[in-house]
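Dear colleague,

Following up on Tuesday's group meeting, I ran the structure prediction for the two-component complex that the binding team flagged. I've pasted the input sequences exactly as they went in, so you can double-check that nothing got truncated or mislabelled along the way. The structure tokens for the whole assembly follow below. Feel free to forward this to whoever is handling the docking comparison.

Inputs:
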Amino acid sequence: MTEITEVPSPFCGIGTDDLTIRVDGVSLRVIENGCAVNTTAFEQPITDTSARVDGKAVSLEVAIAKAADLLKDTRLPVIGGCATDVNGMRGLLALADRCGAVVDNINFTGARNNFLALQDSGWMNTTLAEVKNRCDFLLVVGTDLEVFAPRFFERYLWNKEAMFLDDTRQRSVIYLGKAPSGAASTSPSGQKAQVFDCAIDDLPEVVAVLRALVKGLPIRAISVCGITVVDLQSIADKFKAAKYGVVTWAAGALAYPQAELTVQTLSEMIKDINDQNTRCSGLPLAGKDGDQTANQVCGWTTGYPARTRFSAGYPEYDPFLNDSNVLLTNGEADALVWVHAFNVKAVPPVTTLPTIVVSRSGMIFAKEPAVFIPVGTPGIDHAGHAYRMDNVVAIRLKKLRDSGLPSTADVLNAIEQALQVR
Amino acid sequence: MLIKLTGGTVYDPASGVDGKLQDIYIQDGRIVKAPTEALQIDKEYDLKGKVVMSGAIDMHTHIGGGKGNIARTLLPEDHRQDPVQRSDITRSGCGHAMPSSFVTGYRYAEMGYTAGFEPAVLPINARQAHMEMADIPILDKGGYVMMGSDDYLLRLLTAKKDQKAINDYVAWTMHSAKAIGVKVVNPGGINAFKFNQRQLDLDEQNAHYGVTPRDILRVLATAVKEIGVSHPLHVHGCNLGVPGNMQTTLDTIQGIGGLPMHLTHIQFHSYGTEGDFKFSSGAAQIAEAVNLNKNITIDVGQILFGQTVTASGDSMRQHANHKHASPNKWVTMDIECDAGCGVVPFKYKDKNFVNALQWAIGLETFLLVDDPWRIFLTTDHPNGAPFTSYPHLIRLLMDRSFRNDVLSTIHPEAQKMTTLASIEREYTLQEIAIMTRAGAAKLIGLKDRGGLSAGNWADITVYTDNNDRQKMFEKPDYVFKDGQLVVVDGKVVSTKWGTTHVVKPDFDPSVEKGLKDYFDRYLTMKLGNFKISDDEITEDGRGSITVHPLSS
């Protein structure tokens, strides 16, 4: 039995790297600094140790040969999930390039709200250490932050000391569009976050008025979707009075049509504030299920985020047409490869197409896939790299135990090699 | 396997060879002496009438790191203009302004380049820089780690820590980030922007720390020299793009007091305020100062007309420049109490007065600096133009009539504001070989690269001599990387993986005491998780690390 300290997590997205984990054979216990997200994810036991073809246990070699066999004559295979580490994504993209597949990260439909705004007008963003040391006013838009990342407030807002704030307890927090489910946002001195609640799909209107107020435009209405204009004006005033305001949102939480316009309005509002003699930055929340990792590696390998197809022999990005669910539903795809090394609950969509699953040990299927290959989890079974939410920081994941499970990269590279020699 | 390159005309400035007929022998990846006994030649290439140089080295090109990937993500429409098909031996991707990593490697190699150095590696983003560069085939690579706006350094300066403390921190950071040089970008300015300062002149104080850019340049240039790093402090100065910044640059040269210093993309820092448009060329004054001050080296950062994207660590200046964004979208980031970045797409137009004069200022600089060992050929890829425009740039330097033809097409007021038409100089092949090979290897401190004498790694480019220098340099007959034939007739025929060049200067291990406390209190990562280990680069079996000697 050993204890490993300073363990980084690929699960929570905020790059916590202070976990202490007790390793007993292949079983793990988080004994320090766990949270609702990380503890479950680290402690998930290994159940499957063997690959299967049509439900029967086979050797890894047989499963890889079968996977290659299923892919060799496909015209438009879809690689979904795309939830793994940097090396796993490298292998995944090499395989996609070889067999002309569509690559689609599991969280892309949410992340698309950010990408469409970024690719249309850009943004001014920040990272976690800047928040920790500078942020004096945080606006949380449409997101239950402590459910998304349970330790966000403890680590990045209520930290004991900050380089550029005299008293971190004096920071103010406002929730717009969604109330927090707990009290993590209450400061250590007992100051509660202000909450201006509205229906989630009213946010476009509310945010548009907030931006107008930031720009000093006259608003005739008294209230917007249940929030008074006076309250919205108070938010605008707080930004102008703050030295370093921060706006945060989870793109996937803005679950209504054309939510990219909300992200764009927020991002343009942040630019406006920076033109009014103070600083302000955005902080998009993400980093789950390897989403930032998938988009980063796909970004440098193809030029595009991880909803890209290779069927023409070169990468083509389309945030709508390359949606794997659409391709499966419309009958355009002819095989599914599902890659998810992090979360056993992230099961593949049910389809009648030949399905190859390369996933974390312990995944339970509604329909047994043609090929199932359990792989190790990055940061538990093998070393690796993963991006946290702010995209700049790649964390070095540790190997905690010897499970004998192959890595995603091992498996996908082997399938790619098998296709190459045919 | 013994390979013989027979009868080529060799330009090898590292050995003082200027256009001499010479045979070259390659064995086990290296250039070897002519065998004294009759050994069997396994493969011979007849290079009669061909021009032979070592593989070219781009000493300043943004090929790895977060801001480049932001630039890629920002510009899907640019990629769609230049899709790149996969082949049996090459991966698919995209080209033009900010190519995908694989295409970056192929296209550099197809122009005869065998190494590229990323000049802006943020310590906190160094993993990404190395991971991206690990996916660039064929090329060797390396990075200059960016310092000077990091809060830790500014705290050391405010606390009046001695030079030894600075030296230890710089050396430790180079180890952690796996760097071969140190760069400073808008010294302290990226940090000042976070405190809402919108400009920072050489002697202007950071509002929080009271430290000036001049202080930062001095301590970092001293540190780089004292810890024995060959490559001088690599400086992106204050006031990038600001009319009148020529004076800042001249003051920066004087202010460094004779310490070795490399001023990068100096074209963007050579502007005067004369003329009807209050924008003029300062190239003559800058070139004169460079000629006089032998401690100074420069690269140009030539702009060439067309669409590109600017990706810089200089969040302060990029924010100010966003009003020129074309298309109109842009990104800035404040990053981890470490640095920042700004990404602004640009379309340089020959009929725009400022752009046209920027073009002329870069060329004036090339032509007015006397010593080709102290000036380097760059476009600051992709900021001035994509690296694929180098053959065109070489023609502009080597062919006066071509240069004057292009000059006659740019904005007429810009033509009046440049002395370019009167400059007769044409670069020679040997001078091009110095700027892009021997000089670059010497400047970076690369052992056994950039030359063709025995003992060097066999990075070799073979061209067909052609008076149209653009045609000549865009399509080499052969390129060898570590002795392997990778390009024939300007097309990749095989691929391999290059090495990562680093230096490992000594530091006092007690430096980690202060750093650990700082990381635990203020940063978001444990010190032990921050440091990049060698195996992160080598463990996949493709990467390797080459440690270069320190200067004495």
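The longest helix of chain A spans residues 260-274.

Cheers,
M.
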